[in-house]
Amino acid sequence: MLSTPPLALYAHFPWCVQKCPYCDFNSHKAPEQIQEQRYIDALLEDLALDVPDHVNRPLVSIFMGGGTPSLFSPDSIARLLEEIKARLPVSPDLEVTLEANPGTIEHGKFAAYRAAGVNRVSLGAQSFDTEQLTKLGRIHGSADIALAVEEIRSAGIENFNLDLMYGLSGQTREAALADLRQAIALAPTHISHYQLTLEPGTPFFHRPPELPDDDHCYAMQVECQALLADAGYQQYEVSAYAQAGRQSVHNRNYWQFGDYLGLGAGAHGKLTHNGQILRTERQKQPRQYLGSPVAGRLVLHQAVAPEELPFEFMLNALRLRSGFAPELFESRTGLCWSSIQPQLTQARARGLLEIDRGRVFPTELGRRFLNDLIALFLGG
Predict the structure, then answer these.
(1) Which CATH entry fits the domain spanning 307-375: 1.10.10.10, 3.30.200.20, 3.40.50.300, 1.10.3720.10?
(2) pTM (2 decimals)?
């Protein structure tokens, strides 16, 4: 039977100082003057459109992503958070994350973000190698990462994530490990460690850099995972590693097929309402988004067909190293566990999936070929 899962909120900020050549997110080079107040107004108008259906559901997390949300002033962030909390109930231990670029951090700014209600930061380090940062189109240097961490800690924010990539152009296993050691030395509570991939529509896709082959990347992954484990970072998702008690509330909600409101240009949402699972999507281009009436920004608002739900669920839940209980599948999709027995049987026969002690989880082979495992659930 379909139940109502936890509710989170994602607010998208679509501007960056410059667009990185590997990035396929909805991000755009910032104009000389960002219309901060107009954009915050638009986010709150989006929220007002969604709140009536979810007014009695407390938020477990708020995530401000991009783009580069740290381009916005603390006053703007404070206004947004105050209005969200005025319109929706929130969990007593609400997680509020702000994504930031080390190259956009100013002295004292994070103390003001902390005062506004931010209690977690996700910092886009990507690499500590100067040459690699240049290749990746990043605007910061290695020293800026340490300075940013110092600012975050000085502000009283102890819970922060570092994003780090491997499989970079010309990168050796030794260089990938050196990057990771520098990240660990800064003692973040959480590390997102993921392989650089060539995404369609990006400059890197059209003019590919020479990247290490799959075998070299897998060797990097294995050695880096061992280093992370030795340093006390537990892998709980494909690319997420956390100290004890520091797993991301917001991202775990995604991976457990929870609900989330999506506000802002190009933002997606997933909501359980009136016995249906709905997908929402906002107008993508910032100029069109800001120029449209609030109802006109909602370009997608439709129910997910029952036959699509097994794939949608597995796309998220199978990323978790610990997997999931069959009861979670039933409560989050409204489908019977028996409805996916043929796919489960096939996955187990291929050595991609295991069911043990009431939990379903990918095997080591399944984690390596996760896309193949998830694809078995296409079409229900």
Answers:
(1) 1.10.10.10
(2) 0.95
Burial class of residue 347 in the structure, from the number of CB atoms within 10 Å of its CB (0-12 exposed, 13-18 middle, 19+ buried)? buried
3-31: pLDDT as tens digits = 899 999 999 999 999 999 999 899 999 88
Per CATH, the number for 7-253 is 3.20.20.70
**Helical pair 214-230 and 173-185, crossing angle rounded to 10 deg:** 30
What sign results for the dihedral spanned by CA atoms 90, 91, 93, 95?
negative
Q: How far is CA 256 from CA 5, 235, 292, 321, 332, in A?
A: 9, 16, 33, 12, 8
State pLDDT tens for residues 245-255: 999 999 999 99
So where are the chain's domains?
7-253, 307-375
| pLDDT at position 367 | 93
Residues 311-330, buried b or exposed e (16+ Cβ, 10 A)? Answer: bbbbbbbbbbeebbebebbb
